[in-house]
Amino acid sequence: MKKVLNWLDDYLEEVLLVAALAAMAVIMGIPMYFVQAAPLAGFVLSAVRVLQRWIVEFQTVRGKGED
């Protein structure tokens, strides 16, 4: 019983949110591969943003950055 309660405490919110997202996708007619690809697209955008920030910081350290 304690394991079940721990699992519910850890994962219930995520399971419910995933189920709600899937239900909304079905209702709106969005293909599931779009829904499944969304986290990957978000990761790629975040990685590009981090890379841009590193480039700006590197240029600033070298003295060619923003003044």
Structure overview:
The protein has 2 domains: 1-30, no CATH class; 31-67. The protein is an all-alpha fold. It has 2 helices and no strands. The mean pLDDT is 86.
Write the layout of secondary structure elements.
Layout: H1 2-28, H2 32-62
The secondary structure category is mainly alpha
Order of helices and strands: HH
User: What does the largest sheet look like?
Assistant: none
Content of β-strand: under 5%
Helix content: over 70%
Name the overall outline: elongated
Annotation field: number of helices: 2
Instruction: List the domain count as a whole number.
Output: 2
Q: Got a strand count? A: 0
Please, what is the oligomeric state? Answer: single chain
Radius of gyration: 20 Å
Mean pLDDT: 86
Which residue ranges are poorly predicted, with pLDDT under 50 across at least 5 consecutive positions? none
How far is the N terminus from the C terminus? 61 Å
